[in-house]
Amino acid sequence: MAKTSWLVGGLVAVSLAMAGVGYWQHTKPQRLYQKYLNTTQLNTFQSRALEIVELDATEERWRQASDAFHHKAYAQAAGLFESILATDADHLQANVGLGLAYLAEAQYEAAQMPLQRAYAQQSTLEYLDAAWGLALLALHDGDVAKARQLLAQINALGGAYQVQAREVLAEL
Questions:
Q1: Among the four 22, 52, 157, 164, which has the fewest Cβ within 10 Å?
Q2: What's the mean pLDDT when you consider all of the chain?
């Protein structure tokens, strides 16, 4: 009887340890997502709005959307980005901004399409912004392979997110 209870106790301990490892591996990408979502780097694309000197109506809405995003008024920013995309669905900065605003508002499914659209255009700065947003989405969803792929691209290209990409890759 003593051997049986020792064996059962050992099996329970091993099962609990394995469950803990599985839980740790499953939650690690989500913890990294939370850690890096709140970095100031999500706002770096906003500074490019200040470079525009003469504004047409679309550029003015983009500047207003950028300003709202910078002040963490994500719902307002999303509405302004959407108004730009209603007239120009391929507006690169508006797609990135909308995706990042949705990401900040925890609207993960809505964030996917504009970030994918911007990522597909592969413009240097916006491509990296979109890749960073998609990497955060992959971490949120627990898709470590996709996150690693995107983070490796960011790391290889450099830019504003390179340090964060290296940090996340080291922690994965």
A1: 22
A2: 77
